[in-house]
Amino acid sequence: MDFLESIEYRDPLFGIMIFIFLIGLVSLFAYYWNYLIGKRQQDSLSRFIESFDYIGFDKEAQEFLALSPNPTPSLLFMAKMYQKSANYEKAIRLYVALLDSIQNPVDKVPILESLGLVYEKAGFPLRAKEIYLEILHYFPRNPLVLKSLIRTYEKLSLFKDALSALGCLEELQGDMGLYRRYLKTKILISSQKKSEETSHKLLIILREEPLLARLVLGFLKDFYPALFWESLMRIPKETLLDLQDILWNLKSEAIPQSLIKELQSIPTNPQNRILKDIFEAKGILPLSFSQKETFELETICLLRTHKSFQGDLGFNYQCKSCKATTPLTFEHCPHCEELLTLKTFVFLKEKQDETRYSFL
Hints:
With 360 residues, the protein is mainly alpha-helical. Among the domains are: 1-41; 176-189 and 197-235, no CATH class. It contains 18 helices and three strands. It has helices at 2-6, 12-50, 59-67, 72-84, 88-101, 105-122, 125-138, 143-155, 159-173, 177-190, 196-208, 213-223, 225-232, 237-242, 244-248, 257-264, 270-282, 295-306; strands spanning 311-319, 325-326, 342-350. A three-stranded antiparallel beta sheet has the order 2-1-3. Helix 6 (105-122) packs antiparallel against helix 7 (125-138), helix 7 runs antiparallel to helix 8 (143-155) and helix 17 (270-282) runs parallel beside helix 18. Residues 356-360 have low confidence and may be disordered. The chain crosses the membrane at residues 12-33. It comes from Helicobacter ganmani. This is Tetratricopeptide repeat protein.
C-alpha cells in the first residue's frame, strides 16, 4: 500500500505502463473489430453465393475439387476456356463450384468478377449488376469492377447510375471527361422529355467533344431535322466524311429543298462541297465536272455517267484502338470495349434492286 501511494501520476514509469496498456487495449479492439468485419464479409458472401443454388454445381468439378490438392488454377483455366467458346452455362457452373470451395472472401473476389463478366456476356446484365455491387460493397476501391458496373448500367440504360459510378472511378483514376460527356449525352437523348433546352445542351456538348458527332447528330436527324442540317455545316470536314453512311442512307424527302437549291450553285465551304458530291452520287443533284472529295464518290459519279452498271456504297466500321472491323456501328467497341473509337470505311459495290420490308 505504501508502494502504491509512493507512485505519483508524474512518475515516468507509471506513464510508460499506462501507454503500454492503452496500446494493448487498442490492438485488442482493432483485432476484434477486424474479426467482426471479416466474419460479416464471409457471412454476406456466403449468403450471396447461396443465391446461385438454382444453377446447380458441376459434378465433374466437385469430384475434381475432392481429389485434387490444388484444383483452383485448373478449374479457372477450364472456366475461361468455356467462357471464350461461349459455353456460358458450363462456365457459370464451374465458377459457382469454385466459389463454394474457397473460404477466404478476398480469394473469392476475382472469381466473382469473372462470374459477373460471364453473366454480362450471356445477356443477363441484372445478375451481373448484383455481383458487381456485392463486390464493391466490401471492396469499393476496385477500378476494374467499377468499369464493369458502369458498362452494365449502360446496357440497362441506367445512365444516371452509370454517371454516379463514374464519379467514384474518377476518384481513383483521375478525370475522364470524354466518358462523362458521353454519359451526359446519353441521359439527354434517353430522356422522355424532348425540348429546345435538350437540343441546346447537346449542341454545347458537341462543340466541346467532336467525337460525339455521330451520337448527337443521329438524335438531331430524328427529332430536330433543321438543327441537324445546320450542325452539319459547323463540324470539321474529317468528321463529316466519317458520317457518309448517315448521309448516304438518307431518303431524298428528308433533304430540305432550300439546301438542294443552295448546293446547285458553286459551294463556298468544304461542308457544302462534300454534301454536293454525295447528293450527285445519289442522283439527287445533276452531275458536275468538279473533282470529288473521295475516290468512291468519284467512281459512283462516273458509273452514273456511263450507266453500264449502277454503283452503290457499302460501309464497315473499324475500332481505332484494336483495329477490329464490324458491319454495325458502335459506341463501345464490341471487342475491346473502348469508347468512341469508331472509324468509317467506305467501299464500292454493285447496286442491287432489293425490296426491303420493315420489321418495326
